[in-house]
Amino acid sequence: MIYELAKHLIFTVIISLSCIAVNAVTWKGMIFYSLANSLESFFIAVMGPEAGCKICMPLFRCPMCMSGVWSFVFWVLFSFAFNPVLMVLTVCGLNVILVSFIQNIMDDGK
Q1: What gap in Å lies between CA 27 and CA 29, rounded to an integer?
Q2: What is this structure's pTM?
Q3: Which residue has better confidence, 103 or 108?
Q4: Which of 101, 110, 95 has its CA nearest to residue 40?
Q5: DSSP string spanning 27-91?
Q6: Domain map of the chain by residue range?
Q7: How remote is the C-alpha of 20 from its chain's centroid?
Q8: CB contact at 8 A, 32 and 25
Q9: Tens-digit pLDDT profile for residues 42-54
Q10: From CA 29, how far away is CA 87, in angstroms rounded?
């Protein structure tokens, strides 16, 4: 029981920090800024402005929205090692806490 809880918390921290990192490297002036803008422009051109922006949110624009997609990716990569529903909830909660600490330095892509 304690081992499962510790494993869950470790996965939560790893996934949450990964979401924050993926989001941060797409801020203006960062290494993947132009790639993120190109992807967003592509999705907007293909699907329209509203759908295109909604696709980018869980991929790299919004750490809270990224919880579901990236938890699923880690769940598959680590051979279904944790409960995905519980993981999405805890990762999203941790992302809310982390974003509240770093919101002053975050770039909204503008």
Answers
A1: 6
A2: 0.88
A3: 103
A4: 110
A5: STTSTTHHHHHHHHHHHHHHH-HHHHHHHHIIIII-HHHHHHHHHHHHHHHTTS-S-HHHHHHHH
A6: 2-102
A7: 6
A8: yes
A9: 999 999 999 999 9
A10: 31
